Structures are given as C-alpha cells and as structure tokens.
Amino acid sequence: MVCEMEIEDMDVEVLSSMWPDDVGTETDKQFNVEKPAGDQDTLKEVTITEKPAIADLKRLSELMDSTHQGSSQLTNLVKQWEYMQDHAVMLLRDELKSLSRQREEAEAKELEIIEEHNFESNGHENVLVLDDKSDFLRSSSFRERKRSQVFDSEKIEVDEVYDTVGYWKQKALRLEKLLEASRERERRLIEKLNESLKTMESHAAPVEELTQNLRRAEGFLHFILQNAPIVMGHQDKDLRYLFIYNKFPSLREQDILGKTDVEIFDGAGVKESQEFKKEVLEKGMASKREITFETELFGSKTFLIYVEPVYNKLGEKIGINYMGMEVTDQVRKREKMGKLREHNAVRNAMETELNKTIHITEETMRAKQMLATMSHEIRSPLSGVVGMAEILSTTRLDQEQRQLLNVMISSGDLVLQLINDILDLSKVESGVMKLEATKFRPREVVKHVLQTAAASLKKSLTLEGNIADDVPIEVVGDVLRIRQILTNLISNAIKFTHKGKVGIKLEVISEPFFTSENMNDNKPTTPKQILSNEEQNGDPETTVWICCDVYDTGIGIPENAIPCLFKKYMQASADHARKYGGTGLGLAICKQLKVELMGGRLTVTSRVNEGSTFTFILPYKVATPNDHSDDQDEFSDMSDHQHIAEDTTHGYFQFQPLLRSLYSSSEGPVTGQNFLTHNVTQSSCIKLNGFASDLSHALPSTNIAQSEAISSCSFESAHKYPNGESLYKEYESCSSSQASNEGGALVMESEPAVSSRRQEIDPHETTSERCEESSKPDSKPKILLVEDNRINIMVSQSMMKQLGYPIDIATNGVEAIRALQRSNYDLVLMDVCMPVLDGLKATRLIRSYEESGNWEAAIEEGVDLDTPSSETLQNREVCVCSTKRLPIVAMTANTLSESSEECYANGMDSFISKPVTLQKLRECLEQYLC
Amino acid sequence: MDALVAQLQMQFRDYTISLYQQGFLDDQFTELKKLQDEGSPDFVAEVLSLFFEDCVKLIGNMARALDQTGTVDYSQVGASVHQLKGSSSSVGAKRVKGLCVTFKEYCEAKNYEGCVRCLQQVDIEYKTLKTKLQDMFNLEKQIIQAGGIVPQVDIN
Lengths: 930, 156
Fold this sequence. Notes:
The structure holds 2 protein chains of 2 kinds.
Chain A: H1 2-14, H2 19-24, H3 29-45, H4 57-120, H5 124-152, H6 165-227, E1 230-236, E2 241-245, H7 253-256, H8 261-264, E3 267-268, H9 270-283, E4 287-295, E5 299-311, E6 317-326, H10 328-393, H11 399-429, E7 438-440, H12 442-455, E8 461-467, E9 475-477, H13 479-495, E10 500-509, H14 515-520, H15 527-537, E11 543-552, H16 574-580, H17 586-597, E12 601-607, E13 611-622, H18 634-638, H19 641-649, E14 652-655, H20 673-688, H21 692-698, H22 704-707, H23 715-720, H24 725-734, H25 739-750, H26 752-764, H27 768-775, E15 783-786, H28 790-803, E16 807-810, H29 813-822, E17 827-831, H30 839-852, H31 856-861, H32 870-878, E18 888-892, H33 900-905, E19 910-913, H34 918-929
Parallel strand pairs in A: 8-10, 15-16, 15-17, 17-18, 18-19
Antiparallel strand pairs in A: 1-2, 1-6, 3-4, 4-5, 5-6, 7-9, 8-14, 9-13, 10-11, 11-13, 12-13
Helix pairs in contact in A: 3-4, 3-6, 4-5, 4-6, 10-11, 11-17, 12-13, 13-17, 29-30
Chain B: H1 2-21, H2 27-35, H3 43-67, H4 74-91, H5 94-108, H6 112-145
C-alpha cells in the first residue's frame, strides 16, 4: 500500500503533466481552483489523535473508512493542486510562447530595418537609430534568464514522515503556499505582460517617427545627390555602372547603366580613369586623382575623381563608389596662377636687373655729366691757350720757336677737337642735341669740306668731289652736322690713305628701305621731327634722299673690324690706334648719333689695301631757290649773288696738292670787297676762337693759301709774312715738294685778289696787337653790355668798374645793333634771353653785317636802325677795323634752352654762365682784350 | 664800448652765416659784397632795394597774369619768372632763384596749380629774405654807430 502510495505519489509528482488533459477538460475547473482554499479549513478541522489502543474492528473499519476517505480526499486535493500547477504552467507557457513570438516578431522587424539600413550604408547614423531597439532586445533576453531562475527555486520540502497525514497535510499546506506564490507570480507576470504590451505599443510609435525621419533624410540626400555639382556613381566589380547621379545631360540612364566608362565614351583620359578605378578596386584603397578628359562628348574637361571600393558583408569587394568633380576652371586658374607666379618671379628678377641697370645708367650718366662738365671746363681755358698761341704765332719768331709753337697749336687744336667730340657725344646721348633746319647748298658744302681738308693735307693725295646733276641746288638740313660728318669722314679717309685719292660723291636716291623701321626707333629725333620743324616755317617742301659716298684708296678695313668700327672709343685695331692716333670717337658720333639722329644711315664697305667707302644717306627738304629766309645758312650768304649761277651748276671739284696749276675748282678767281673783308674776318676768327669746327665753317670759298699750305707751316704764318720771300721759302723747304716754291709764286701772281688783299692788310696790321693799337688811340677797350635785367646790369656794371672797364649798356638786341652802328666796340657781352630781339638773333645779324658790310639782314628782320644813311657806310669805309670780327661773349643762364652749342652756332665766340662773377668776367676780358 | 662792438660783430657774423646756411643767400651775394667799396659804400643796399622793387613789380605782373579767368598767358608769366630768376641769381637770393627754376618749369608745363603755388611761395620767400636782410643791415648800422667796422664774413 505504502509502496503503492509512494508510487502514486511519485506518479503524482512525476506525471503531473498528464493530469491537466483529464482535469483540464472539466468545465468547473474554476471551482476546483477555488476549492483548496476551503479545504484547508476542513483539513484543519480534522484532528488526528494518535492513541496506541487496541484496535476495535468496528472502529478500525470505521477508521479505515475515514482514512480511505481522507486519503482519497487528499488524493483529490493533490490532484487538484497538480491540476492547478499544470494550469499555471500552461498559462505561463502560453505567455512565454506569446512573448517569444513577440520577440521573434520584433527581431524580424529589427532585422528588416537593419537590412533596410544596410542596403544604403552601414554608417553610424543607422546604428544610432537602432540603439533603442537593441536595448529592448537585450532586456527581453534578460527576462528570460530571470524566469529560469524562478523555476529553479521551486522545491518542495516536507519535514513530516512520509505518507502520514501530517506529511500530506504539511505537504498540502506547502503546496498551497506555493500555489499562492505561483498565483501571485502569475498575477505579476500578467501585469508585466500588460506592461510590456504597452511598451511594445509605445515602441511602435517611434518606429513610425523614425521611418518618417528616414524618409525625410532620404529625400534630403536625394536632393543633395541630384543637385551637387559632382558626378556620383556606383560601379560593380566589372566597373559597370549600377547607378549614377548627375550624369552628362545628353546621356540617358540606359546609356550608362550596365556599361563601363570605355563603352560609354572615348577620348583622352577615359582609359586613364578606367585604369584608375581598376587600380583602386585591386588595391582596395580609396584614392583621389585628377584626370583630364578630352572627349567628343564634352570637350576638354578636368575632373577630380575620388574612388573607393565597396565591400559586402563578407568583406568581398563588390564594386566601387565613384565621385567626380569638374575642376577644369580651378585647374586652369591654378595653372594661370603658376604661370603668374613664374612671371612674377621673372619680373622680379628683371626688376632687380633693371634696378641694377638703372643704377649703372645713373652712374654712367653722372660720369658722362662729369665728363661733359670737365670737358667744358677744360675747353674754355684751352681755347684761351690755343688762341694766345695763335696770336703768338703772328709775332716775329725764329724758326725753332715757330716749330714749337706750331706743335703747340696743332696739339691744342687736337685736344679741342677731342673735347668737342666728347661734348657732342654727351649732348646727343642726353638728347639735348637739337637739329637745325637751314638752307644750304650741298655742292658748296662738299667743296668747302674738301678745301679745308686740302688745306691741311700733308700727303700727295687727290681730293675730288663729284655731285650728280639731279642733286638740288639748295636743300634744307642741319648743315653744321652734315659738315661735321663730312669733315670727319674725309679726315678719316685722308688719315688712312697714303696715296691715290679721296673723294666725296653725292647723288639722289629713292627713299631707302630703312625709313619705315627707323620711324619706330626711339631716337630722340626722327626725320619726322625735322620735317615738322620745317613745317612750322610754313613751306610745304618735298623730301629728297641724298646718298653721300666718301671713298678713299687707303689701307681699308678688315671685315672683322667693321662691326666695332662705329663703337665709341674703338678703332679697327690697337695697332691702328698707335699708328694713326685718334680717339675713335669720330665715327661713333657720325653714325649712331648724327646720321641716325637726322633719320639717315651710315654704312661702310671696304677692302683691305684697296680702300673704303663710307656711305651715308640722309633726307633733306628741297628748298625753293629764291626764298631768302633769315634761316639761310652762312654759306649761301657767303657766296656773292653773282657767283651763284656758276656755283650751283658745277658738280665736280678736284684738289691736288703741290700742283697749283692743276687746281681746277669750278670757281673762277674771286674778287671784290666782300671777299676781302671775308678773309680778314676769317683770320681773326681763327685767332680769337681757335675751334676746329669754327675754322671749318668760317673758311672762305676759295683760299689758295690753304690748299698750298705745306707741312709744318700753318695758314696764318703763311699769310703773316707774305712779303718775306725768304721766310716763305723756308716753309716750303720744310716740305718734300720742290714744286711748292713755284706754286707759291704762281698763286701770288695769278690771283691778284689774294695778293692785293695781303698788301692791303699788311700796312695796317702786322700783328693783331698793332691793329688794336692803331684802331684805338685811347687805351681803354670799349665794351658793350647787352642785358635787359637792370639788376644784372647793375651788378655787371659794378664788376666791370672794379675791373677798370667802363661799359656801355644796351637793354636788348636792337639797342645793341644801334650801339654797334654808332661806334666800335672791342667786346660785346650779350645776354641770350632778351625781349624785342634776343642775343642769338642779334649776334647773327651782327655777323651778317660783318660779312656783308651792310645791315640789310637786320633791316629785313625788322630792326629799326638809327641811321640808315650813308654816314654809316662812310664810317665803315673809314675804319677798316670795324669790319674785323667782333668778339661776342654770351651770358647764358646755363639752361638747356640757352646751350653753349647754340651760342656757338649763332656766331658767338664764348660764353659766361650766369650769375656773372668777377672771376669769370676777368677771365673773359683777359681772353679777348689783351 | 668795445665789448658791445665785439658782441654786435659776433652777432652779425653769426647771422650772416645763418643766412647762408639756411640757403637764403649764396656766393653771388659774396660777390656783391666784394663790389662794395669806398666808391660805392651802399652798393649792396642799392642793388637789393632795386631787387625788392623788382620783386614787387614782377610778382604783381605774375599775379595779374595768373589771375586771368579763362586762358592764362603763360609766356607772360614765364617772362616775369625769367626776369626774377635772373635778378635773384645776380644778387645771390638762392631760395628765390630756386623757386623761380621750379616756377619756370610749371610755367612751361602750363601747370596752373603749380604756378599759383610757386607764386605764393616766391612772395613769401622774398618777403622773408627782405626782413632778414633788413635785420642784417640794421646790425651793420648798429656796428657802425657803435664805432666798429662791419666784419668780412668768410662763409667757408
């Protein structure tokens, strides 16, 4: 029985699960559930008294019955409890089931969401969005664990002896308690369930919201993707496009999707990009590159491309993300910037270079300025020295003294010439040199140049001039410069020619090729300027280009020396410099400065030992022959009108040394008062001035004395002692020629004009000193100051007073001329800038009077003369000395407009720069009045 | 008495040197002084009074020429400037001369503003010079009154 009970009990315990099916079907299980509570009381009522007594059978059976009853009751109770238990378990299971179902659902949903997010990216944002949910999941798994713990703690312990009533009772009580607890748990579980259901519901709402947010974010992303100025695409591992944003507008989506770059378009850069993408895919490293495309589709464009590989969940490469931005403009700008920077650097370098050059130039300029100043400073005293030496040469000297003196004079002249060259150079370089436009006769110029050259000729050379018939009789140009060029070239030619001939050839040519390029030059003066100068004179004239060849049969110039021929201070070679002397300035001045300044060109052709030809081409204006303007050159003034007809037509001159019979100048013997006065003027000019250039342009049209002047004897000395035959012979003996003696005599006989001139002069003045003495009985020289500024007058007057010279004053050029008409002066100090008639013009008029013997030029100029009567003429005739060259010293303010060159050009002898000082005046007076 | 003379002479010397150093005068003024001797004891003063008369006249001319509304005859202004330049150069009025050089450049450039500015400056400058020289002459007078002799001032 006991065993049975045990088994039953055990059965009850073990097979509790079997029960519910039987019991569960009963409809009144609710009752049963309630019953145990009531039964507890009944059990309590049953009091079991254990008494060891003798069993009464009746009683035993009764007892047995009641025991049976009790045990069956107990069994029932147990069954009921088990049922209850089962029921609870079932409920719990149900609950568990539903919970796990919910969890599964949630998981599924989560997975769904995760997958959804995964699809787009596994970015951080997605993780953030799902954070809540994962928390929730974690908490549910926690609850599961808790539940199992609860089950574990369920143990039933019974203290009573097994299978006694007490035992069962106790067991029942415990079970009841357990039941109670279980019910309590159930209730709580239900509560929790409800709660979790509620939380589930409340969780559902954020999901909605999140979805909405996601949708918005997606829209935003889409917007950005479609409007960003970049191309974005995704390509699979074969580099076929899966999708693309902002493709090139002319391509349709189906043109791109599923294709590779190479298949879509071709051209430069496409392949490169394809390669690049491949590379990225292979390496698995995102990278950037700039690729320039040159395609038919969109032309030349540069893209900055960013490519990154894309992996699937397993970490396999499945394609690339590709992003391209057009940076054509930026690249262009960048390149531009680079170029600019480069330019900047270059410019900076150039700037520093330039600064250096400027510095050097400034230094050079300063040096030049200094050179010019120094030259100028040297020239003044030197001209004094040479002048004095020349005067000295007119005195009685023995032969040795004379030779020494001649060396002195020629050296002095050389230095003067050199200084003049330097001054010319600095003048041209500083752009100060002004060109004059005066009328002149080219034939005469050539003739004069040749005559001058012949005068100092010490070799047996033939000098010839050849002028084409079509060369105009008169042209307009800067005669002074042209003369200088010719003189320079001729003297060069003579220097380097030992036998044969030297000549000048003039011919008219058509406009040369270089004129157009010359116009573009930055020369200070271009022909245009000269032309415009003339246009101001109001004469519409035509330009004629004259080509002038200066040829010789000299030593020639080696070809390699030609390029440096025209450089300053350069000669063909050092040997030449030693042998022939010279500074090497002449040609440089001729070419670069004078000829080109006038808009012409100087070239040279040469053959060694055969000779050289220097050719210069210059533009001239053709003058109308009968137009006598005040600008007329002195050369045209010089020749008397009666000779013009002869002069102008002849085109060939020849000068041969030593053989005077062959001297076949076109001109016949010149006679007349004009010529006489002219020659006298010239001689005094040389004495007082001594400038080589002046000498050349003050020379008379014919002076046989020059052409026959031989070797060491100068022209002055020759004419100083014209009567002293013995002396004359002495000079001739100096020369190697034997014919000179005859020639000299021949000249004197054949040209009465010249001899008569000499005779005429000689009684009057053997020396210039005597001239002064004879002409002025009073010892004080007369000085005229021409100055308009009364303060200057006052100061100068006071200075002259202190120096012991009384002065007369004229306040302008006209007054000066009037004063000169009235009386004779020994010196004129002439201000340059004056009202009514300025110093330069006045000087020119005075010189013209000295040359022509009348004031016609002045009258033409509009100068109102005091006494235009015969009185003046008589005056002039009476006093021969009045026609000697009057020293005129300019007083300049030393500005550019009052340059010394201009003073000389206008016939002034010297100048003093203002403000006048005692020292300067003293020097000047010493030079001209001693 | 001697002390006074010595003091005045010192003062005169310093003052004259300061005039040179400040550029009011140059060597030409020294030249002028050399010309003053027994024969013409007031030569410098005469020349200078003439000069200042000229200044008044010429500046008046320039002002009138520049005052013309419309076209200004710059050649007229230039002529006056040239005159003033010559005069100032002759008396050694260095600053006035310097201004005249600038003035002339403006004149040649027909720069009205520059001309007017120069005119004003010249006006100020010659007046300043006049006061300074008057001071100097006063000093000279004082020296003479005190029985001393006007010292030769060696500028270098």
